[in-house]
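G., before I forget:
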Amino acid sequence: MSVTSERAQAPAIPPHEVVRVHVPPRSLASEFRAARIMWRRDLIRFVNDRIRIVSSLVQPLLFLFVMGAGLNTLSKSGTYGVNLKTFIYPGILCISVMFTAMFAAASIVWDREFGFLREMMVAPVSRSSIVIGKCFGGATVACIQGIIMILLGPAVGVSYSITLILGIFGLQLLLAFTITAFGVMIAVRIRQMQSFFGVMQMIVMPMFFISGALFPTRGLPGWLEVLNRIDPLTYAVDPMRRLVFGHLHISPMARHVLDAGVTWWGYRVPPLLEAAVVLGLGLLMLAVAIWEFSATE
Amino acid sequence: MVSISMSPLANSDGRTPAAAIVVEHLVKTFGEVEAVKGVDFEVAPGEVFGFLGPNGAGKTTTINMLCTLLRPTSGSATVAGYDVVRQRDDVRRHIGLVFQDPTLDSYLTGAQNLRLHAELYGVQRDLVEPRMRQVLSMVGLWERRDTPVGTYSGGMRRRLEIARGLMHSPRVLFLDEPTIGLDPQTRRSIWNYIAELKQSEEITIFMTTHYMDEAEWCDRIAIMDHGEIVALDAPQVLKDGVGADRIMIHTDDNEAAIAELADRFQIEAHVAEGAVTFRVPGGEQFVPRLFSELRVPIRSISVSRPTLDDVFMSYTGTTIRDAEEDPARNRSRMMMRMSGRAPR
């Protein structure tokens, strides 16, 4: 063709057609897409990282089986025939989710250290979409971990029913979301991974120990009772325990002592209100995280 | 080529097409340190524009303001027709960025990194795959697209970053030291991509470098030193402007040589990179005279046509390498880094 021969004069450029795309202005749809890809990124990374899946299971399993079995003989008189493993199972359901969710949030610090945070910071999307996507990503990953813990039920004397599984899953999802929001809120301010682990040790471990995951919330010393009622994790552990204990056949005395429930000045807080506390805190911390993230240059 | 020395924005009919980048009196201070001291310039669409200067000259700070990562202390700038402060999102939609430091997710594969980018930028779904194929083929990574970035070499990562920066067909591509720390072969191939891009896409390229030989590839360069633009033109025009050749001699007694050059030849010489350096028109003709008349023994001599190094030296009085070793300059850079807003 004559056109081709004329073209031959031009500098040699590869003959492929240029695919030209364009970036639309910001819209709700584009924000949703951005949030969704941040969520998917966490899933892809989780699935690719098998060591992480295993390592975040180790701690809850240690608590459940080693501590549960080891201290069982000591606690026999106080649990009215309920195995200690069964007693702490609801608490372990919560903390397994908590550790994974904190870990997911930690990746923000990681991203900052390894530069990927910049890629998110310069994208033409709202920072809120990124934080929201991140929180749901962390929550989803934590729930996958949670499902593995749910599967352990029969091993500690808890038999399944569909309502129990759905209930546990719902509570875990709620807790996972709140803890990820909490973790992101902290992670945005931290520049080094070591510091983040330091903060984890300083905040997460006390939260876990104070929450009543390992002991009943009745008859605590005054100072501990105050701390326990302030600890947000208390409001996830308590409904979880009520839910699991609702499906157990145990003596009324054991129920009275072990599943005492959280009280505010003598008022027994209903589970729905407890769940609302967790959700409310989660939303509040999400808002703070978004605000902090948007203010970062 | 006289026409190049004029503003590339001026058409024959006197009307100016919309510039890709317009910068007016841009200033950025970090506490006490004035990193950018009021720079002005324009970049025409389709141009490859280079920012040249030693580390700490304010290049990265300027680029960060242009790509909306830093707020200017004062002054204004538009990129692709949008104001970098008031229309931040519009600027972001139209620019691609390749940073000095890596910004890839090394747990994801090359393709996953690019898809993530396309999703963040809202690229039309049906065009994501063809566009990805195009940019990955250009940088020679199409075959490696499904391997995690963690397994890539440094050069491959940089190439992937360039591909990602192009993924959303930006109008302006910012490259901050795109070839720093890379082997010569990769550096050359990156310049080939840039040349290819100029041919195939309607794109303006704004880059910083402190490699003089690379600046030669740019259509125009701005030389930046201590936060100011000291010269701005096509590389050839800048070199022609220097006029004289550069002579560097190694002697047994540099002090005596400098004194004698001043006495006998009225030439002002100084020591740069360990050699007595001075500038004369017609360098080759001067060498025989030098050998016969200079009493200080000469151990070696080199004569060179003006390079961008000479341009740099004629405007700043120092070579770019010496400038980077200047402790005062490094101190101010340290302070900027320590203030937490490092101009990286």
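The longest helix of chain B spans residues 184-200. Residues 1-16, 330-344 of chain B have pLDDT under 50 and may be disordered.

More on Monday.
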